[in-house]
Design a protein that fits this description.
The strands form two sheets. Strands 5-4-3-6-7-9-8 form a seven-stranded mixed sheet, with helices on both faces. The chain has a two-stranded antiparallel ribbon with strand order 1-2. The longest helix has 16 residues, at 148-163. It has 212 residues and is α/β, with parallel strands linked by helices. The chain has six helices and nine strands; from the N terminus they run αββααβαβαββαβββ. It has a single domain (4-210), classed as Rossmann fold. The termini are far apart.
Length: 212
């Protein structure tokens, strides 16, 4: 198997997400060809999509909000970091420290390289951090409510962290399993997207704070 960073460099190029031109990421232009290459690379079928290779609408909106409003001096967790977009935005927006968590080793490699390319420091873990207390003042979640078991498990944990005093911010474009209560809408953006990823060219996407 190719080393993950070599695979990323061979199959993605540095480019800026439409809503966050301040940040450059290793992104792919087509979903299915890269997905097939990932399955071939790992030698098995049914692997998750290469989330690291695309700037999803929820992540773009959340990164834009973080850059515009700041997280100065905060200890930040970016959960389900993917490309590292939101983590990098937090680092640029004045965070004291940033931990990007993603269980995909390809994501971990992409985040590390993307952080270097944006001249910021981001720590990376492939551990499943759901259930941990952690030292985080701010927890950021971009576009993670697309699957019921994960969304329910994640939301229950986030509520415990919010009750413990953490600021929990979620970027979401209307995914099926987004919580319907206990959230406060902070901002809404029109995020340019690809029809390979979404069912439209522009996705209205909001940033919410979890309140309970």
């Amino acid at each position: 198997m190719t080393e993950p960073l070599a695979f990323i460099r061979a199959n993605a190029m540095l480019q800026a997400p439409p809503l966050v031109p301040e940040i450059r990421l290793h992104l792919a232009n087509e979903v299915l060809p890269l997905w097939y290459k990932t399955e071939a690379e790992l030698g098995r079928e049914g692997v998750p999509p290469p989330y690291w290779a695309f700037a999803w609408a929820g992540g773009q909106a959340l990164a834009r909000y973080v850059l515009d409003h700041g997280v100065a001096g905060a200890t930040v967790l970016d959960f389900g970091s993917g490309s590292g977009l939101v983590a990098i935005a937090a680092a640029k927006a004045g965070a004291k420290s940033v931990l990007a968590a993603d269980i995909d080793p390809f994501s971990a490699a992409a985040i590390r390289q993307n952080a270097i390319d944006n001249n910021v420091v981001v720590d990376v873990t492939t551990d499943d951090v759901i259930g941990r207390e952690g030292p985080w003042d701010v927890i950021l979640i971009g576009d993670m409510c697309y699957e019921r078991p994960l969304a329910e498990r994640l939301t229950a944990w986030l509520k415990t962290r919010a009750r413990a005093g953490a600021i929990v911010l979620i970027g979401d474009p209307g995914r099926t399993y987004f919580p319907t209560s206990g959230v406060e809408k902070l901002a809404t953006y029109n995020v340019p997207t690809s029809r390979e990823l979404e069912d439209r060219d522009m996705r209205e996407t909001s940033v919410f704070r979890l309140t309970a």
